Structure formats: C-alpha cells, structure tokens
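#onboarding

Welcome to the new folks! Below is a worked example of what a typical request in this channel looks like: someone posts a single protein sequence, and someone else replies with the predicted structure as tokens. Don't worry about understanding the tokens yet, we'll cover that in week two.

Example request:
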Amino acid sequence: MKVNMIKAIIFLIVFHIPYVSLANEYGSVTGLEIPRYVSIKSDNANVRVGPSKNYPILIKYIRPNLPVKVIEEYQDWRKIIDYENHSGWIHRPLLKGERNGIIISKNKKNIKVLNTQSGIEIGEISNGEIIRLLKCKINWCLIKKENYKGWIKKKFIWGVEEGEVFNVGYFQIFYDLYFRSINYFKKFLN
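Example response:
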C-alpha cells in the first residue's frame, strides 16, 4: 500500500509540475505568451489600479505607439509595465500588437543607426524616441523611424527581450552578405 502511494506521489510530481509551470507562460484569456510586448494604440489611454473602469486612474498615456509589456490578463483587461517600470491595468482595445521600442541610452547620448550591422552610419536617434521594430536578431534590431530605417544595437531598445529573435527570414544571411560587401568596397574606395 505504501509503495503504491509513493509511486502515485512520484507520478504526480514528475508529470504534473511541468504542466503547471507551462500554464504560467501563456495568457489565460488569449493563450498568447506572457510576458509579451505590445503598443499603446491611442493618444489618450488610461492605466488603472485594477481591471475595471471602476478603479482609479494611475497613469494617462498621451503617446501613441508607446511600447508596453503585458504581464497578466483578466477578461478584456491587460496588466502592463512600461519602460519606466510603471504598472497597472489597461483596457484591451487601447492596445495593438504592433512591435515598437523606445530608445534608452544611459548617458542620454544619441544612438547610431547603421545601414547594416557593423556597417556605415546613416543617422542617429535620440534617447526617448519611439521606433518601429521590423526585425530583431540576437544583438541587433532593424528599426524604422519616419522616412528611414536601419540597424541599432538591441541593448539600446526597451521593448524587446535580450535574446529575442523575430521576423528574421531564411534569406537574411544573403542580404547581410550583400550589404557587408557593399560597405567593404565603400570603405576600400575612400
């Protein structure tokens, strides 16, 4: 009897614990990954103390496209954290799935934007600027701001995880080789 009880306990521990830990990685409402990054849709978005319009307002966002991290779900409400570590509940229709980032520079210097990773500088972007994230590799992200796009180091972006990779296609290696060769010849000719 004791042996069967021990086997049952071991069975529950071995087979139940992995499923419990996986349950915390996906939202209970959407089934989407938690945490995940989204953006503020509106230029008038209230963040509240709790998941209802009856709760007091903590923060009012007036910058559309501001990236936030969803950390919890409850019905039509999402608990979020922003780049300044403010946290609260926002109504789902005020969010969009678009991936944006915000430039974070510890010394408030402008960040170089390059035509390729380790390529030629094509511009600079200021601390606090909101950018559109087109794709991210291990250490670099392709960003878009107004009429230009380029690569910046991921360490200067809030809105993407350190090791996160997304929107990188199969032909990216050929694209990278093409632009590296162009940059090499431009440096060689100068």
